[in-house]
């Protein structure tokens, strides 16, 4: 492979090559910057390029290696950082014009942990206003487009991250997820991710002026979007490293104890009142077959309290948003984001006062039911969305648009509410009337066992193949 094609390597392949000395961190960085220059203008995924900083960082890594310093596990791997997380000297705008000059005085734990592992940050990726849409557009930087075409939204809120990594701009893309913001972009772009469970990844922004709401702390997590599932095993151990600034971080190893016998996987196509598209059904069948072939014991199940947990979870989160965020949204948000929040509040009527506190407490009820259920089924293979991913601005199309985008995403935000790990992996490439698009499925893991979900993603990817390969052929 020529140096100019090094952007095609996975993070695992890149790190192996740079650590062995087969290629330099500088060569990898230049290849990724060239890919960004070529692909990003059509996508608007990276909205703050950091080319010169990346070059300097790569040269420092090469000098340190030549001097005999040990290499980190992500030595020379190109990464992007979402613009709602602090990176020293950069604006944490969160897609809001009024916040464009909020400059971070230091790095968030996810940034410092990636740097400690040897990664090279090449740019910062786009997000919708307040990171609160499943689509990515804002008045500050504009729309992020999906590399598969304009017929598909890039997803959100980590839409810039998903579009960038699948287009070949960096091998790893940082994102975060309070109701699906890692998994929506993974599903939209055909990438792979695992939403970590509660307290798994240290979180803190040095630029913050107040602590987040309790439910936001309990539901929001930091993670990575990748195009090769095995890259999560390489990169997530670095991401989950402890940081004293997060006093509730749980310092557990990435790999848990091996489970005895074949791992049981609960399988369901339940989408409740939402119709399942035939291509989603076929993707679930393909994923199931892949797991059976890999030695998993897959059984049909009835998921406990899933719809109730999802609806209660979203109404509870909306209650906290109404109490703590609404003044900023009304004062600083665009007319479009205010229209969307009006519809959120209509469809997911926020709990208030004592009822809000009661429903926050009820998280334990749902989480306990799933904890007991997953003693028998450590993994659950389920839909992510009941339909192929929607088009741009679908959530601006009134009640039906918001219902399709978030109302049908019960399997997404239920997992945040209960704090469970949940991976999202492509299992099919559908040829639909508007154009081809990937179809992702979700794998829910037992608490603390993100590694099991990633193992299952690898088994599915080994059979289905990586979605970046047909995408790059399509992109030319």
TrEMBL record:
Which Gene3D superfamilies does this chain map to? Answer: Amidase signature (AS) domain (3.90.1300.10)
InterPro entries cross-referenced by the UniProt entry? Amidase, Amidase_dom, AS_sf
* Alphabetically ordered keywords of this record: Hydrolase
Extract one GO molecular function annotation from the record.
hydrolase activity
Would the keyword Hydrolase be found if you checked this record's keyword annotation?
yes
Q: Name one Pfam family in it.
A: Amidase
Ranges where the Amidase domain occurs: 28-451
Sequence similarity = Belongs to the amidase family.
Q: What is this protein called?
A: Indoleacetamide hydrolase
Name of the gene: bam
